[in-house]
Amino acid sequence: MSSSDPNDIEEVDQVKRAFLQKTSVFLGAVGAAGIAVPLVSYLSPNKSTQEAGKPIKVDISSMQFGEQKTVLWRSKPVWIIRRSEAMLASLNMTTGWLKDPDSSVGQQPDYAQNQTRSVRPDILVLLGICTHLGCSPTYRPEPKSVDDSWEGGFYCSCHGSKFDLAGRVFKNMPAPINLEVPPYHFQDGNTLVIGE
Ligand code: FES
pTM for the whole thing? Predict the structure, then answer.
């Protein structure tokens, strides 16, 4: 039986140590990458999420008086309504019956805090979600179509809230505040941009 040279043993130990060090550094890097990849993908919004948050453009060139369009913005319904002169005149008749006729609660951008709650009087833009518990009210523009004093507006059949043709809520309704006006502007006379 031959005895081992102590120098050989020392050399083997050094080779083993170097191998183990390299292996543990490699495994550590793999583990870190395994954690980092899901974290990065979680923090970066995916393409559809980015798309959903983008402003949307709507062509309103063919809209007739009284017509309503509904589009989705950030997965929420947004109504666009072209109001006639008669519809705008109805806003003078509802004032005394409203909870917040001057829209003092911040349910609209500053540029829409006026009687028509809009940039252009004829074009109304509203989030189609009731401020009570989130149902979607229906558009009822015809006078007397909900009750005898009805001048036209939006009616939420879930619990009976009524809103006028500017989305202002009537007194003694379950909905506490007016319907929300989202941010928007006109790119030109025929194009509405919602979300900016
Ligand atoms: S959710 Fe509209 S009245 Fe209750």
Answer: 0.76
